[in-house]
Design a protein that fits this description.
2 copies of one chain form a homodimer.
Chain A (H helix, E strand, L loop, with lengths): L6 H24 L6 H8 L3 H7 L3 H29 L4 H13 L3 H16 L4 H12 L7 H19 L7 H12 L3
Helix pairs in contact in A: 1-2, 1-4, 1-6, 2-3, 4-5, 4-7, 5-9, 8-9
The first copy, chain A, binds a DNA duplex (30 and 30 nucleotides) through helix 1 and helix 3.
Amino acid sequence: MRQQRDGRKARGDKRRQEIIEATLRVIERDGVAGVTHRTVAAEAGVPTTSTTYHFSSLNDLLIATLISCAQDMATEVYWMIDRARSRGSRGADEVAALLAAALGPHRGRTMAEYELYLLAARRPELRPAARRWLDVLTSMVRPDDLVALRAFLAGIDGLLIQGLIDDEPPKADELRPVVDHLLQPR
Amino acid sequence: MRQQRDGRKARGDKRRQEIIEATLRVIERDGVAGVTHRTVAAEAGVPTTSTTYHFSSLNDLLIATLISCAQDMATEVYWMIDRARSRGSRGADEVAALLAAALGPHRGRTMAEYELYLLAARRPELRPAARRWLDVLTSMVRPDDLVALRAFLAGIDGLLIQGLIDDEPPKADELRPVVDHLLQPR
DNA sequence: CATGTTGTGGGACGATCGTTCAGGTACCTT
DNA sequence: AAGGTACCTGAACGATCGTCCCACAACATG
């Protein structure tokens, strides 16, 4: 009978997920360079060999982390666009607030996302996962809006990356004019 | 007398520069993660200890490489903007062509630049160097154009980063409409 | 020529790395 | 109860890492 999951597999999957989450925390803290079997295991509170058992190599661990991360990112940006639309001409406020949050409280997470993003540039097998959130958004708009959306999303990426090397995170007020400029139709 | 440079220092500076250039080649090929004293030394054709002598730590080597890299980048983008301006409404063609080149023939170099860029996000001492090219461009425009320039530069960054995870580099023709959209005044 | 300075490079040290292995435990199937 | 499967983990291996040390050569300075 398969009504009940295999207890062993259930615990295995749970630990697997915990390892992935620990990996993301390590990347937020120390970057991709800080990801080793030992640091991840310590962060997750499991023995070192546990990470090698569940992920056949460090590469697989990074791939799994990127996929998990991209999934979250896609849904997050999806709802951001959705809320911004519902606010009509005040959509720029919504976007600027989210950018400010990504560069302030969630700065580590934002850095982690872009590091994984760049990792995908070097490893073709990671690219579909990294592209997913872009594809999700592309499917949201009418085809004739595509150029405007591409320009807008590119601007978002640029503002985030440039914001990461500011000495102190830019406030929503500083970002709003630029976001507004990016959103304005022509 | 100081008419003639110290022969020893002259050779030292030359080797120092060769090591920096070798470091950039290593980053282009294997990423920042591939930078070790040994790989850089092998790339430069010098003994391992030579890199530790000229750079007190691996960190210093990366800093020096970023500074050198940012310098080149600033001048390159400076002239791009200059040429684009001189072509008036056809400026988008110039920009799109440069982006296509950055994502095609110079893909490794572009990846290296953004990896160093992200490194600056984690190390405050690197940020002034990483920001330099942004500052140079900011000083090129009238203050009232600042928002438009910020949006444009952010869009450029976004297009480059997104182009890095495409399975094959986007052509200038595909980039031109988006660049044109970013350049259009409102 | 003597002395100090600067660059060169071979060798080695301890630390950390990814990964493997073998023995053990917990659970499911029959 | 027996056997198979899936998960767990301590110990260890060889490789590679950053860095240091020291002897030496090249050059400048007195």
